[in-house]
Each structure stands twice: as C-alpha cells, then as structure tokens.
Amino acid sequence: MSQIAINTSQNVNINFNIASVGERMLAFIIDMLIKVAYVIITLYLFFNFFNLDYFLRGLDTWSQMAIYIAITFPVHIYSLVLESLMEGQTPGKKAVRIRVVKIDGYQASFGDYMIRWIFRLIDILMLSGVVGLISMIISKNNQRLGDMASGTAVISLKNSINISHTILENIQENYVPTFPQVIALSDNDMRIIKDNYIKALRIDDRQIISKLSDKIKSILKLEIDPTKMTERQFIGVVIKDYNYYTGKDN
Length: 250
Fold this sequence. Notes:
With 250 residues, the protein is mainly alpha-helical. Helices cover 56% and strands 8% of the residues. The protein has helices at 21-49, 52-56, 61-71, 73-76, 78-85, 91-96, 110-118, 120-125, 130-138, 145-150, 187-203, 206-220, 231-246; strands at residues 3-7, 13-17, 98-102, 152-156. The strands form two sheets. The chain has a two-stranded antiparallel sheet. It has a two-stranded antiparallel ribbon with strand order 3-4. A hairpin with a 5-residue loop joins strand 1 (3-7) and strand 2 (13-17). It is elongated.
C-alpha cells in the first residue's frame, strides 16, 4: 500500500497509507446506494401520498424538471455537506474507513470540499466516472482531479493498531489534570502533537521536543518553570489532560 508524507505545522512528516482505488470505489458504491434509496423513498412518498403526478400534469417540461431537482437536491449536495460535517468523511467513507485530508497537514476547509464537489462534474459525471478513475490510477497519490485542485488526498484509517497511534491515552481514575487550557485544542491538534511527540521520543530528537513544547505553550499561553517540569513531562501531561477533559479514554 502506497503512503503519503504529510507535513505538519511543526515541520515533521507523518506517513499515512493512501486509500486504494478499490476502497474509494467501494465507498462510492455505498454512498450511491444511500442516495438511490433516498430518491426511491422520496419519490414514492411524493407520488403516493402527495399526488405529485396530478400536480405535474399542468406544468411544462422545465417546471417539472425544476421540481424533480428540488426533490432530489439533497442527493446533489450529499458529498459536500457530509464531508464538511464529518471532517472529510461520508457514510461510505466512514464504513470503508477512509478520509479526505489536506496534504499540507491542516484540516480541510469547506472551500476545499467545495472544490472537490465541483470537480465531481468532470471526475465522476463526465464519461461515467472514467476521468476520475484514470486520474486516480495514474496519479502518485491516487488523486482524482478534484483532489489535485483542492490539495487533498484520501487516506486509509486502517493503520491504527494500538493506543499509541491515536490521541487516546491511558489515565488512572484518580488522575488530577494540570492544564485546563488544553480544551482549546482540537482532536486534530492533539493527534499531531502525539504523533510528533512519539516520533521524537523514538529517535531522541530533543530539538523537535523543544519546538513542540514551545508551540503548545504559545497556543495555550502557558509559562512553565523548567526546574519543576521538563519539556517531555510537560507534553506528556498535556496529552493526558486533553484526554481527561474530553473523555477520550471512555
């Protein structure tokens, strides 16, 4: 499985597995089945309970088309809305365990999802998806044109095998937190912090640990006495405190 190195805000590369073409197609099929089910159920209700067919008889073709578009509108904005609300996932992507991420390491914005959605007209609707399929096959990171335009990629989340690879942290029941300011951080922030911290510990990179510590202190506006708590101890406490306040260990 190919990998992509995403550069975090601390200038450290973290490798993620790229979602395969097969995984993306499976997610697409699941989402398509959901959309088809919605259309079937919705049209059934409108025709059988609201007498839509009777109403449509007195309208011209363009008016009829406008009504059908209005009824099926959720299908057209399905991926845009759900990827925005679910942080890069749709029900199909969630089921297959893949996610849209920014290559530069930042959280994808609504604008990025919008660009991907607009390019679906070329990638998926044009030539029955042939353009997007060819693009994913020949591109380095299995990107369709929408991914390239928005600076995103789709990664697999199946490489998390234990607690050290997540934002989770084992804490004791009687644990007493030190820094309530950590609630200002997001899950994405904490994931980056922990990934960088573990990698730095593994290779004993004191420079990364120092930069990471300074970055956290800057964000949370903290001043720590180095004689009472080392940089490594500080980062470790921040990770545990975040898990304590957000209940990630439950």
